[in-house]
Design brief:
- By secondary structure, the chain is of the alpha/beta class.
- It has one domain: TIM Barrel (Alpha-Beta Barrel).
- Helices cover 36% and strands 17% of the residues.
- The strands form two sheets. Strands 9-8-7-5-2-1-10 form a seven-stranded parallel beta sheet, covered by helices on one side. Strands 4-3-6 form a three-stranded antiparallel beta sheet, with no helix packed on it.
- Helix 2 links the parallel strand 1 and strand 2.
- The relative contact order is 0.13.
């Protein structure tokens, strides 16, 4: 309960102070809480780590509950989007269906509005070949969820619709440190270069975990 209360307060303040879309990720996998908070504060999206299927993680077995989250969204008449992870980091699937099948299931059966693909751990680079495989499997919006840096985003920029960036923005690239403005400026300078070479402007979004 305290997690829901705290995230609601923080999300409301972010909504008041930033112009870009914001989203909620209630860890480890509380899609219903994230959706409820996002709806209440008029956020734009949620991130659900395990929307469909089941994984074995460092926190034990985590099961997707897409049906419950979707029913809640319908009951609330909410327009909040659901961004769902594919091959979520810090976990392994209980039954490995492969990236293509998992992606199709999440979008076609789980009705996710967008998909997220990441590296194996927080801050780990998302392999370009993985991005391309997921991109070929769906026309849904695709984001990378970890490991984006000014040095590597050029390899996947044209294939994705957004990036969730955390670790790179922090001092020394460590997720537990504070944000370092110079690293944010360096990253966004590279994003601007890539946008200028491409007519498809990529969205920018912030999320709360």
């Amino acid at each position: 309960m305290e997690t829901v209360a705290a995230l609601s307060a923080v999300a409301r303040e972010m909504k008041r102070h930033v112009a870009c879309p914001i989203g909620l990720n209630v860890l480890r996998n509380d899609g219903e809480a994230a959706l409820a908070i996002a709806t209440a504060v008029e956020a734009s999206f949620t991130r659900v780590n395990v929307h469909c299927g089941a994984v074995v993680s460092e926190q034990g077995l985590i099961e997707g509950a897409a049906h419950e989250t979707l029913r809640l969204r319908s009951a609330l008449r909410s327009g909040v989007l659901i961004f769902a992870d594919i091959a979520v980091k810090h976990a392994r699937p209980l039954v490995d269906l492969g990236l293509v099948t998992e992606t199709k299931d999440v979008v076609e059966r789980g009705c996710a509005d967008a998909v997220i693909v990441s590296g194996e751990r927080t801050g780990s680079e998302t392999p370009a070949k993985v991005v391309q495989e997921v991109r070929r499997a769906t026309k849904a919006p695709l984001l990378i969820g970890s490991g984006a840096t000014p040095e590597n985003i050029g390899t996947i920029f044209d294939s994705v619709n957004g990036m969730i960036v955390g670790s790179y923005f922090k001092s020394a690239g460590q997720a537990n440190n504070f944000v370092e403005p110079s690293r944010v400026k360096a990253f966004m300078a590279e994003v601007s270069k890539l946008r200028n070479r491409n007519t498809n402007v990529r969205p920018t979004a912030a999320s709360i975990s």
